[in-house]
Amino acid sequence: MLRVTVLERGRIMRSDSDADSVELGTPSRRVLPQRLYDLLYRSEGAREDRGEAAVFRWRRNHCLVGSWVGVMQIPSLQLEILPKTDVGAVQDSDQEVRDIRCNLMEMLLRGGLGAVRARGIVDLALKRGNLHDQLVDAFLERTLFELRRGLDRGYATEEDNLATLRGKLVLSRHVALNAAQKARFYCRHDVLTEATQISVRLKQACRVLAARALPVAVLVKCQQVLALLDDVPDLPFRHREPDPVFTRQNERFADIYGFACMLLEGQATDARSGEIETFSLLFDMEQVFERYIAAFLASEVMHRFADASLFPQAKGQRHNLYLDGQDKVLRMAPDLVFVHETAGVQGAKKKTLIIDTKWKRLSEEEGSRPSRPDLYQLYAYLHRYDCQRAHLLYPKAPGLQTRDLNARGRNDSDAGTVGVRFVDLNRKLWTREGKTALADELAAIVREGLDLTPAASVGAIA
User: Fold this and answer.
1) What is the DSSP code string of 332-381?
2) Contact 299, 291 (CB under 8 A)
3) pTM over 0.85
4) Res. 422: pLDDT tops 90
5) How confident is the model at residue 189 (pLDDT cuts 50, 70, 90)?
6) Nearest-angstrom CA–CA distance, 423 and 431
7) Count of H helices and E strands in the chain?
8) How does strand 403-408 pair with strand 154-162?
């Protein structure tokens, strides 16, 4: 099995040779032997034919890596795709690749996309191993933690011919079976069971992982999970099954259930052997970036603003742009909505700031100006949310400067400001120093957007 790392927006080249001794190049410009390159091409073509999002843009004898990150495996090749966090640098050294991997783990785990939220981030980021092994390890750690607190349980309906009356008597079946046995009762009753959809899915995922080539320590955790789920039946996985209803009793399993589904849905079976040789565990960096910034703001920044509230995905603050009779049309859901209201001050004006995260590379030649669809989107936010400022937040890149675009209204009146802001992700985000620097950077953007003086915010807690 050849294991290689490539960077987002990098290239994968098709070698002129099929020999195992091919020079593999660098993460930014990876070279694959002909056989493996052609196999990757066919595998991705099959994924795209199934309607899945394209990971690569194919050219003659090479392909360009898109904005998906994670791990893909086909027979004889495991491909790790990491984000490009510094456009101006090559980022091909082993240390730089390790730092990028740690940053991605921090973003995935804090954003809730890697089955674990804040728990264990520092330890996981410092572990060695590729991204796939670290994500699987995080999933198993969290699964063990939750199962040791108690397995998910639920009621299931059963029917049986019992010696005592239990539940509801099924009269038709009772008469047919017990006409000569007056000491038996055919009943339909509910039983408390551990064989819930959540437990079954977790066991299915661990069965899949147990068959993969993983570090011994990870396989041990996998076996520990399977031992805890020993009484749960082994059922085959079926695609597109409806998800269970999560309540306050079982919502602690929601993250790991979603990750288990991702593991199971991302696998493909080899038709000749029946063994699972092909799988993918991929994340859209647009979503990773958005959820990481939202989670980081909530945990590391918002305590600095005593009278401000944050609404990720505009939860509780969503509006519609149109009405068609009584029907609401085009519901708006900005990534981040900040509302500032000074408590206990009469006549204090409510301030609203909207931030939309964008995992894009702005062009320096165009003066770091956003695309027209993004500007139209922010103009609609300014109008519908009646706010004076809205920001587009991009990863920082060399040569690009912050800027403000003044929106125009009727009769050329002032309709608010759309700001272009950047956040530096090319730092060690899993360290205390990296978190503090990022928190200061985001706090300055929020303070400026809400037009607050430093005295209006609470000092950062050391």
Assistant:
1) E--SEEEEE--TT-TTPPPEEEEEEE------TTTTTPPPHHHHHHHHHH
2) no
3) no
4) yes
5) confident
6) 17
7) 11, 21
8) unpaired
